[in-house]
Structures are given as structure tokens and as C-alpha cells.
Amino acid sequence: MSAFVQITDVTRVFGPKLSLGEKIAAKLGGNVETRSVRAVSGVTLSVRKGETLGLVGESGCGKSTLGRAIAGILPPTSGTVTIDGAPVMADGTKATTRVQTVFQDPFASLDPRMKVGHTVAEGPIAHGLTTRADARRYVADWFDRVGLDPAWVERHPHQFSGGQRQRIAIARALAMQPDVLICDEPVASLDVSIQAQIINLFLELTRDLALTSVFISHDLSVIQHVSDRVAVMYLGRIVELGPVGEVFGNPAHPYTKALFGSVPKLVLDADELVRFETIEGEVPSPLSPPTGCNFHPRCPCATTICQTGRPSMEPIHDYRSVACHHYKACLGKEEHD
Amino acid sequence: MSDTNTPFRRFWTEFRENKVAVFALAVVVTMILLALFASVVSPQNPYDLANLSLMDSRRPPGFVGSGGYTHLLGTDPQGRDLLSAIFHGLRISIQIGLAAGFVSLTIGTALGITAAYLGGRIEALIMRLVDLQLSFPAILLALVMVALLGQGKAQLIGALVAAQYAYFARTAYGAAKAERGKDYIEAALATPLSGRLVVWRHLLPNCTPPLIVVATVQIANSISLEATLSFLGLGLPVTEPSLGMLISNGFPYMMSGRYWISVYPGVALIILIVAINVVGDQVRDQFNPRLRK
Amino acid sequence: MSDPVLSVKGLSTHFFTRAGVVKAVNGVSFDLARGEIMGLVGESGSGKTVTGFSLLGLVDAPGRIVEGSIKLNGVELTTLSEAELRKRRGHEISMIFQDPIATLNPMLTIGQQMKLAIDAHERVSAAAARSRATELLTQVGIPSAAARLRAYPHEFSGGMRQRVAIAIALLHRPSVIVADEPTTALDVSIQAQILAKMRALARETGTAMVWISHDLAVVSSLASKLAVMYAGRIVEEGPTATLLRDPRHPYTAGLIASLPAMAKPGAPLNQIAGSTPSLLSLPEGCPFSPRCTHASGQCTTDADMTQNGGRQWRCFHPVGQTAPEPA
Predict the structure, then answer these.
(1) CATH 3.40.50.300 is right for the domain spanning C6-92+175-270
(2) Does B1 touch chain A (CB under 8 A)?
(3) pTM of the entire structure?
(4) CA nearest B218: which of B266, B262, B166?
(5) B14–C62: do the CB atoms touch at under 8 Å?
(6) What phi, psi does A85 have (nearest 5°)?
(7) Which ipTM did the prediction report?
């Protein structure tokens, strides 16, 4: 199986935007933040044709930034993203139509003053996927496909519920006939009973249209449900990558293990209280990430090498890898406890 | 939801609840109509010098002049019927206010949105210029501009625009900057749509509510600024008196008991400006969701 | 069982808006025992947050409590004056919000704010206040608490700020804390730390809690009792594990079944069709009936709460009752 989307050594740095005054203050030794944030740091990753890659991590881990880099919305500081061998940013600045994104908040991602049919139609018209004359029928087809009444194209976003708006956002993305769909926390702002509707729609559409997709979420149960493979991110780096069943069933990286342990699970079978497995401490500031392995200050099995040497992604077997110096020893040790 | 529930209709339903604003809107509309049809409703054409008789000058309200009709509000030092002069003066004031307002709106919006959309050096350049200009009083700028450009309608409008576009630029910039960061703009850029499409179809329509509010206030400000310039004798030629000049013409006679020459045009000016501002306040309240119940 | 510290009966809070009367809370009743944690679960617009605000008398115009009784330690709160209420708020009953930054004053140090919160209800010396503040900050898990008293809110991380908010809520050892989604904005690793802390605190201090959340998994690991809200009403209430394992109300059942954890990965989830009704125009009878697969003609009338073995539900056609329990 070959890579369809290839992400090679992508880094994205956000520098502080300093005003003239702040620059002068910084020169004079004032207390001005001049450090930059490496939101994504040297990520290499591939997505195979037709698969759903889950991208999971806590807030600030860089998963959304990576998603935007793959979509060609945000150019990486260094590194490349290619689809089927072709770079996503043709001239280095402009996004491609081959990747489309569904954003987190459907209340913010639709233009409040534009009829929703028009919102869905304008991309395909601009790129010649349909004609102005034919746009109505084209949009109605997509509305039907995502489970919306085609008669609703004349309405404005405020006339829809959150779930319906997310369907419109999905229709807008798919109407561009992309090869790759990026879903950036598409159900995070929806009610629980609506989440299931949107997840089902996603599963159905990616299967029927044979879409390749990257599904970004902080919700492990959602990731586990929709993904074929999963990449776990921590402080801008991928720490573990593998088939979803294996990673969830037997996490290799201490962070993955701790993350899974701290997610509250639905308690159904016992009246007694569950024990939380908590990770000590907090996520360090991305302004000054720890040396060596990013996770070492919170890691139960860190040694001196973790403070200095940055672990690279090592294959555990053909299709699974982890960035940890001690993943074998650590896991073994924990099991003996 | 059917077609009866258009945004405009909803807006009007809410507007109607404020009786004062509805009354003010009626006043504004009436004054605009009076100004439009000034030559029909006026008993006299105050610009036709052949019509004027010095015999009739400075007569009090209710005086029946040589024209054979009653001067309801009296006459001015040139013997003009004051009521007719006010109607025609309104026309000039509103004309200049609207023209200056719309030209400033266009220029200011273009600059503000360009700055917000492009960012970087262009943003810094445009907005620092605007800030610099906003630090001077509008009347001072208008005076300087009139001095540079000379007298005349176009020159006057130019001076008013120069004094006011910055307010629109600031408002448009603020609104566009806020909208620029929202997901729907990012979604449009990610599609990708061209920058031109994003600005015209998404950014501009979403920046209009605050601009409409500023426009109402600034049109009122243009009218009063024009009146001030005319009062100072820097406005239009004497042959076409606006409200400000009418006030100015009557000013020397205030102390000799001939109050009406200044007071009635002044009252007309105040009613117009207050009414526009009341309407503007209501529009602002309706566009500002934070003030909503 | 002793008397409940908090007893709510038939509470209704409505908002009188331009568009009509929004019946945000509609006849909500529950009891809370000392040290008990009750999860109040519901989706957006279910009325869970307004219920929480009503308990503290914090409902602002155009909303007001139109009906019902709230008894805190035997005292009726709904008829108290604002001054009387203020004496109890922060003292006998306090609240933790989703966003701690909104409740902390950015201009004051944590120590100053805690001193003010103590002074609002008691007269104590500065030294005593400081030691009490230090003790509470330590209790909620803030390292080197004494030194952190001099820090400003912006110098804390989101998780630490929420701990400070919890410490302030605990200052007067209130009988009841109303917590409105306090961990929703936090990362899972921080959330787990705070959940563990809260559970321990409730046990140690005897403070009862109403834990408002949309996340069934969070409350299931924290609360001993659950109340599920839908469109302004409690549709089902009972001991957490029993209720989740064997729900009676079709809405609760649908909600649990729709969780991704309940299905095989990649398989379609059991979704509830439709969306929540507008509180401006609720359907006749059961508000869930238009989305309910069990609904019948009877459902256009109001169902009473059915009491059964320590749990209760509001439904004519409860699920799971006719079928025998699996062995």
C-alpha cells in the first residue's frame, strides 16, 4: 500500500507578531515575549488512499495546525505535503481544491448573510465543477446526499440547528469533489444525540465516495470509532502511530497509555467508584518545550537519555511506530506494578 | 419560515416598537420630501433675484409681502421668504450631507477593508494615516481643505469627505478585522475562492451593519459641519444659501429683535440632526446584539 | 437517611422574551443528601444550566423563577430577599463555572480575592485568612500554595485556575456546590486530576454537589445519582450505574446507545433522529415524543413521574421493563 497523502518533515512555527513599540521595548530589554511557538515540529506521516487517519491529542498539541497544513490553508514553515505526488500548495500560497475541510464550529463556518445553497454552490461554480445555470440542481443533489431537504437551499444559516449546519458544511466540502477530506473536530460542538448522526453520515459518505480522510479530534471514543489508523500527537510531535485497534488495545507510548487512562469511561457494570489514572503535572508551555523527549517531565519511566536525546519514530513492526526510548521496558515495568 | 420573515421585515418589526424612533424616521422622511419638492411647496423661489424685493426684507412672521402671500416665518435681509429659503436650504444641506456621507463611506470602507484583508505593511500604513488624521478635529481639517480647494459645492463635499472618511475607515477596519478571523472566511479561502470573491461576497456584506450605523451618524455630522462652514462664510456662494448661511445672515439682527431670521433655520437644522441621530441610535441598538434583550 | 441538604420541588424558570415565553426549566424536582454528588445531564437547551443558576437565585431578567420551592438546609430560598440570598450565596451554597477566568478578577492576586471572599461572610484576621486560603489551595492540589497566593490569575494555567475557583467555592465549607461543566474546557489529563480531587473533597468535607454536564462518561465516574434533563424537565432520575446500565426513558436509552463506545468501531451508531425542540414552542405532552420510536397517541398528554425502587422516570412507555433482565 502506497502513500496517497505524504507529509514530509512538516514544521510550522508561529512567531510573535510584535508591534514597533514592542520591538523597541524588546531591544531595550523590556519584558516582551519574543519566543516563537513550534506548533508542529518535524512531522512525517502518510495517509493511504481510502483510509481514515485519526489525529488525536490534547488542546495545543498541534493537530489542527497539522490539519490546516495538509489542507493547504496554512503553509508549513518547512517540509512538504503532497497528494498523489503533487504538492498541495501549487505556487506555495494557494490552497488546492483536492483537499477540503470541515471545520469545528458550524455556527462560525457558514456565512451568516448568505443563503446556504449559495454557500455550497460558489466553490463549484468558481472552479467549473458546475455552471451557474446548473448550480441549483447540483447543490440540491448534495443536499440530498447529506440528508437535507433540497428545498432548504434558499434559507439562511440561522434557520438551521447545529447538526443541520454541519451537514451543510459537509455538503460544501464534498461539492468540491475532493480526494481528501479533513475533518477538524467536526462533532466537538454538537450535542451528544446529534454527534451520532454526523458520525454516521461521515462513515457513510467516506465509504460511498471512497474518500481519503484525516479526522482530527480530542475525543478518543470518536477517533476509535471512525479511524482505520491513528496518530497520537503531543506538543507538536507524533508520538505513536498505528492501526486503531492495536493502538487502543495496547498503547506503546507512555503518553498514549496515560491519555487513555485519564479519559472518563462510561461506568455501567459496577456501583463502585472508578479509579482515575491521572498523568502528573500539566502540558508544558509550547513556548519552551522540554529538551529531549517532550513528555519526559511527566513520564513515569523517564531516564537521563530522555532529557537529552529526542526519540525518533521507531517501527515496532511493519505498520506501527512509536517515538520512545523505553517503550518496551516501560510497558513491561508498568505491567509488573 | 416563509418569505414574510425576511431580514428586512424582522428589522422593521423591531424598529416599530420604538415609537420615538418611528416618529424621528417620519420627521427625517418628511424633511427629505420637503427638500426634494422644495420648488413645489415653497411659495417663492428664493434663488430668483427677480422675485425678491428689498421692501420685504427683515419682515416678521405673518407679514403679507408684495407678492401677495403671507410670509409664515417672516423674511430675511434680502427679502426672501424664510419658509421657502429653509426648504431650499434643507435641500442643499441634505444634498451635501448625503453626497459627502456616501463618498466618505466608499473611500473609508475601501481603505479599511483593504487594510484588514491584506494586513502587514499596507495595513500599518493605512491605519497609522487614519489614526493620525483622527487626532485632528474634523472642523480644523475641513477648514484647511476649504482654504486649499476654494469655494463651491464639489470643493465643499471634498473638504467634508477629507474630514470624515477616517471614521468609516476605522469602523470598516474594525469590523473586517473581526470577520477576517472567523471560520467562514477561512472556509472560503480554503475552497479556494479568489481574494476578490471573498472580499465582495463575504467580507463586505458582513461588515455593513456597523457601517450603516456610522453612516447615519456621519451624514448628520456632515450636515452640521457644512452648516458650521457656511456660518463661517466658507461654504457655498451667497446666491444659494444653505441652512448654515441663513443662520449666519440673520445673526447680526439677533440683538435687534429680529430673531426669526436665525432661529427658524436653526430650529430646522436641529430637528433634522436630532431626528437622524435618534434613527441612528435605534439602528445601532438593533445591530448590536449585546444590547439586545 | 437524614434530611436532604437541598430539596427542589416543582421548580420552573421561564424567560419572558420578545419572541415569547421560553420555558427553560419546567417542574424540576430532586433531593440532595449531605456529601452526595448528583450528575445533572442534558444537551444544550435542556435547562440544566438555568436550573443551576436558579438554585443560587442568579437568574437575570427577562428570566425568573415562576413556580416551585428550593429548600437549602430547611430554609426556603425562593421567597428570600436579595440581601438574605447574598448572605447564603458563597457561604452555604456556591457555584463553579465552566470558564474560571470569568469568575476571577484579573486585577487582584489570588490571595486578595480569597481574602475578599472570606470577608464577605466572616470577620477574621489577615493571618487567619491567609492560612485558610493556603490550606484550601493545598487541598485542591496547588503546589507551593503559600507562594501562589501572591500570583495573579493570568499566571495560572487553565487547570490551575479552575482549582483556584474550586478552592474559593470551598472557602466557607458550603453545604452545596453547583458545578456547571467545570471540566469541559480542560484537557482530559487535567480533567481526570480535577474529577479525582472533587470526589475526594465531597467525601472529606461532606459538601454535596450538583454536577452539571453534557458528558455521560464524566458524570458516570463521579456522581452517585443522575438526573437526565430534556427540554426543561427531568425525564429520568436514579442511581448512576443502574440508570446507565438499564435506562427507562427512551431518551436516556437513545443517548447512551448513540455513544461511539457502545458500537463496534466503524459500524453505524444508534442515532436519535431529529433535533431538540425549540423551548418557545414545545410539543404537547412529552417533549421527546416527536423523536421517540416508542411514542403513541397517549404521549401528547403529560406523563407523571413513575417511582420505582429508588428511581423514577417520566414516560408512558418505559424501555427495558417488559423484557426480562439478562442473566
Answers:
(1) yes
(2) yes
(3) 0.86
(4) B166
(5) no
(6) 90, -15
(7) 0.85
